[in-house]
Specification:
Layout (H helix, E strand, L loop, with lengths): L4 H18 L5 E3 L2 H6 L17 E4 L4 E4 L7 H16 L7 H11 L18
Parallel strand pairs: 1-3
Antiparallel strand pairs: 2-3
Length: about 130
Amino acid sequence: MRRTRMLDMWIDRKITSFSQQLCVAKPKYVMRLRDLLSLPKEMTKGRRTSAYKYRGVAYTRSNLIFLNVKRATSRADLRYIIAHECAHLRFPYLSHGIRFKKVVDQLMKGRQFRPYQPKRMKSRLK
């Protein structure tokens, strides 16, 4: 897809709404590889130079998303990419399995998720 001002505003609204549904802070996002490579290496550790191959990459430690808008074929496709990458921020422990795909589908249907709370360790004292 070709980036336009209207598309950029639409992407910002989608990222805002998905992050609110997931109860996570709105992530920073970049849509050009040039902008991604200009960020500090600590923020983009992992998939820095290979990001161009993917439709999107979530950097969970930095709360950052890279969206490769050029690889998206339609707005519906781009909406799925945004939902997918936002889901990685809320569920970093899920890999690309059936549960993760269900989460993305529920997110796209409008489900509101509860804030993430790590499991508490049960006390073994008696």
